[in-house]
Structure formats: structure tokens, C-alpha cells
Amino acid sequence: MATSRPQILYLHLGNDTQAGLFDDLYRNVRAQIASLASTQEATSMAIAQSLLSTQSFRAVLVVDGGTAVKKHNALQKQLASYATVGGTVIFCCLFASFISPPDMSKLWKNFNEPWQSGDYHRSTFYLSQKMKNVFGSQRAKSLPSEYSMKALHLANVPVGSRVYVPLEQSRTESRVFPATAVDNSQTPAAFHKYGDGWLGYIGDVNDESGSQALLMAMLGKSYLKPIR
């Protein structure tokens, strides 16, 4: 008997510019996802709310900043409820490039998270050893132990939810500005259990290969059972 493919929903509620960039810049990771799952896309709040209410998705990927604006407040709360009952919600791809700090703060409040918008810079980050307990030892092996990324960081993330972290001696990396110390309490990527589901954030703005691997590892946690 054939096993049905998992269903994944892309939310891109941003403008045409964001939609075009997503199509152009994220072809590789979309192809990886398409090899494992069937996908649908929602480009308006009405479509997103309808799909979330009537279909079963293993995960929802919020791929630009459109979902975080004030007029989509109801959808944000629906996503939080979806994750609470077992879904996986990941804010990724263009999300960090098109989100304002005020919208970020309001978004996380709807998820009852203490997270806040943090610094924006490039540095080399290192996989937290705590992630072996989160992803499992085998899935954790698929992640690079370290890689450089330019990212919008999160502040106020508990240590156990920080996927990649800087070291004490870490410095910013720039071709223009001198290197400076980074805030070791912030993280470019977060992931943790959320009710019966999972909540993730990837702040990389350049689709580094390490971030692609991280997204696939996060999605791997959603393949256990369908969620409605």
C-alpha cells in the first residue's frame, strides 16, 4: 500500500517583489522539499486560513515578512494554535529580510514567546551541543558543525532553543567595517518544542547551504504524523 506524501504549506503574503525573490533565490531548497513532500502555497490570509482549517499539513513555512504585519494578526494566532496541537511552523527564507522590529515583537507575542529582534551582521556560528537532544544524533550529523552567515538575530531565546551560537571570541565579519565582538546571548536560529508541535526560526538572509540543511532538519521533525 502506497504511503501518502507529507503536505507542506508555504505562506508568502508579501508583495510581488518578495514573491519574485523567493522564486528566484530559493529554487534549490524548494527542490529538496519537493523531493520529500507535496506542497501548496498561500498568497493571502483568506487562502491561508482556509487551507489551515480544511487540510492536514505536516509543516508551514513562513517564507517572507507578509505574515507578520498587523492586518494578519488573526492568522498569526491561528499558526500558534496549529503548532500547539502538533504542527511545525518555521519562519525562514526571506522572512528575516522583510520584517521590522515592531512587527517581530508583536508576532512573537502572539506565540507567547519572549523572543525579540536582535542584531544584524555576519559571523561564524557553531552548532549547539544541546541540539543533539532536539534533533537526535543522526539528524544532527546532517548539520554543519559551523558556518558563516549574515543573519537577523533573535534576542531573549533560552539557551536550549538556540540552534547555532557564537563563541566567546567570535567577531563580526565584514569587508567594509572593522571586526567587533558579537552578543553571545543572541542566536541566528532557534528551534524548540511548542505544545505538541515545533516552532523554528532561521535568520540567515543569503540562503547559505548550512541554512538549507538546517531547514531540512527542522522539517524532519514534522514527518512523524499529519496534523489538522
What features would you describe in this structure?
31% of the residues lie in helices and 25% in strands. The chain has a nine-stranded mixed beta sheet, sandwiched between helices. The radius of gyration is 17 Å and the shape is globular. The chain contains eight helices and nine strands. With 228 residues, it is an alpha/beta fold.
Compact description:
The protein is α/β, with parallel strands linked by helices.
General form? globular
Order of strands in the sheet with the most strands?
2-1-3-4-9-8-7-5-6
Order of helices and strands: EHHEHEHEHEHHEEEEH
Number of helical runs?
A: 8
Distance between the termini: 23 Å
Structural class: alpha/beta
The overall strand count is 9
* Assembly state (oligomeric): single chain
**Helicity level, as a percent range?**
25-40%
Overall pLDDT metric: 92
Q: How much beta, percentage-wise?
A: 15-25%
The largest sheet is: 9 strands, mixed
